[in-house]
Amino acid sequence: MMKELGMLPRTETCNDMLSLFLRMDKIEAAWVLYAEMFRLKIDSTVCTFNIMINVLCKEGKLKKAKEFVRHMEGLGFKPSVVTYNTILNGYCLRGNLEGANRVFQGMKGKGVEPDGYTYGSLVSGMCKEGRLEQASEIFLKMEENGLVPTAVTYNALIDGYCTKGDLERAFSFKDEMVRKGILPTVSTYNMLIHALFMECREGEADALIKEVGEMGMMPDAITYNILINGYCRSGNAKKAFNLHDEMLSKGIQPSRVTYTSLIYVLSKRNRMKEADDLFEKIIKRGILPDVVMFNALIDGHCANGNVESARLLIKEMDKMKVPPDEVTYNTLMQGHCRAGKVEAARRILDEMKTRGIRPDHISYNTLISGYSRRGDMKDAFKVRDEMLSIGFNPTRLTYNALIQGLCKKQEGDHAVGILKEMVSQGITPDDSTYISLIEGIGNVDRFLENK
């Protein structure tokens, strides 16, 4: 309308629109508008260039982003700290820390002082790559330079140490935040609560949830999903469903992640009718299941001996255009093998291949275990040979299954031979291996001689 009225939009107007397109991930629209600015001879500013460099970084075109900086300098514009931060963050997001460090050194060489965002991006990038000691060093350097870390920087360190399993260090950063007057965010608590649940420290997780309320914060959807998943993992279905109801009462909509956890706990508690009913209810609510949710339901039916019901779910997946993966088929194979239907499991492996899904070592170990439990050692070794022929090395599970099967067939000497092969491959036998061998040979002294 402005153009039709003969009004030339100001640079600031165009910058606002470019910034909006960037936030909305409308990358193509940003380039169209930038080209229009050039055509209408609307001057660019450092802000314009920074936005377009950010667009290039979002596209993963970091080399072109750096060329854009040189183009910008050629036009007489001096890149700002924001310019360098944008490219540095682009490298960090892609795990290219060497590239990020080059940008860091380059900006200092041009006399542009790094700010809190610069250091924060480097800390975050280091943490994501598991380089926590380096991240901590950069963090200290940041403070030495008089820059105040934000909650985002602290959260990156907390997340890194939670992922590593060093909860003591993670909590020390949270306490440091509080001492310095930097308020922890809901994300801070989410990471710590999740880490506590992963270590089965429910009591401490509950105390932290209480602290969230005392801080005047509202748990978000991620908080509830972490809690529900945590209680589902520990088998506390009642607590998990109470939290689901609490979510709804607070106007927080449960997601696929929420319902996958609830289906999982119902399956583990042998409540498959309720799991199926919940699955139907989810679909009626317009929440489309993904492969993870289907796998949880298939696993539940297989674990409860309902292999036919599990098999029918593959048809449902096809109907809903949800492609099965190797977990889907491995779960089905395990269910059929547990039910003694090893031939059916073999057909499932073939179907898996037909669909273009490559069987993994779990697929082959499942079949070997199935045949071994049934005493069909010829077929078990045939599968082992097939596994070797496509490049999979036997694992401890492979050898244990073969040893157990041979011992059941009273072929103790052959079993000892497999044990020797196992050790020669650098695989350490466990208690299960030795118990099977002692039972198979029937004489501890003779077993020790063979050993």
From TrEMBL:
UniProt PPR repeat ranges: 45-79, 80-114, 115-149, 150-184, 185-219, 220-254, 255-289, 290-324, 325-359, 360-394, 395-429
PROSITE patterns: PPR
Pfam families tied to this protein: PPR_2
InterPro entries registered for this protein in UniProt: Mito_RNA-Proc/Resp (IPR051240), PPR_rpt (IPR002885), TPR-like_helical_dom_sf (IPR011990)
Entries under SUPFAM superfamilies matching the protein: TPR-like (SSF48452)
A GO molecular-function descriptor: mRNA binding
Keywords: Repeat
Recorded family membership: Belongs to the PPR family. P subfamily.
NCBIfam families: PPR
Identification of the protein by name: Pentatricopeptide repeat-containing protein
Organism field: Escallonia rubra
